[in-house]
Amino acid sequence: MSTTAIAPEEVEAPTATAPETPKGPVQKILMPLLLAGALGVGGWYGYTKVSFNLHHESTDNAQVAGHTFEIAPKVGGEVVKVWVDDNQLVHKGDTLFTIRQDDYLVRVQQARAGLASALANIPVAQQQAASSQATIGVNQASIVGAQATYGRLATDLQRNKNLRQDDIVTQSDFDALQATTRTAAAAVASSQHQTKALRSQYQASVKQIDVLRAQVDQRRADVRNAELQLSYTVVLAPADGNVGSKNVEPGVLVQPGQPTLTVVGSQGLWVTANYKETQVGNMQVGQPATVEVDAYPGVEFEAKVVSLSAATGARFALLPPDNSTGNFVKVTQRVPVRLALTRLDPQRPLRQGMSVEAIVKVD
Q: Could you tell me the CATH superfamily of domain 102-231?
């Protein structure tokens, strides 16, 4: 029977186990304190989180909004010069681009010439009216003289009629006097008719003056309109902001109402936050809010609620949902809430469309 020799290095030495170090009194006291502290911090955090959620409503479905001005010319023509570039800062009243003015200058000159002609017609009509009025005065004096002559002849005729009966006046003299009296009566009637015609002519002259004055007012309006059309050839910035979506270059023919560029307003920014309909039950105008912008982590902007939309966002969609047809699936709707930014940071400018998280304190 043979035996196998075992090399000394192959024999495993017994491992010695280190004796457990008994816990000291400090460790026995510190561990429960740490555990109690951790539980206290966790409980306090949970309490503050729950309390915060009970008194605040937040959403990240929110963006910075503002005024955007679509620039379109009021008159057509060839663009002569564009004074701005994309993203350029402009102020209210700055020139954006100009349209060739030659045609509009001619229209202004024509309108002014028409006004001068209308103004020149008024003195002529006034002179005619004054002449008619003077003629009326002369004619009235003639009527008085003709009536006096007729009265005298009528008296003589009546007296001669008695004398003729006594054969004191010859028949020829009586006939002559009778004819003269009739002529005087006709002269009175003619003068009266002429005076009536002159008065009608005078009234027509006065009305013509009114017509001419109305024409002057119309010509003045034409001049004003032509000057306005000329002023529209210089397109100005409607507000402070930055140029965007520029689609106009020199030499391009533009038409009235044609979009050319956009001015993104830099003043009066606000936040549009789309809260769930379950979040706006206690939300009211005037409640304070804070806004955290994704572009500036950790920075809060003060705000307040200024209005709540009268309808959910879906009501303003191109195709509003109609739940009365087909299968109905309830979807929580969003209500747009407008927040006014009450304090801005010049070092951290906000831009329209930036994503934000809006938090409103509801009580």
A: Helix Hairpins (1.10.287.620)
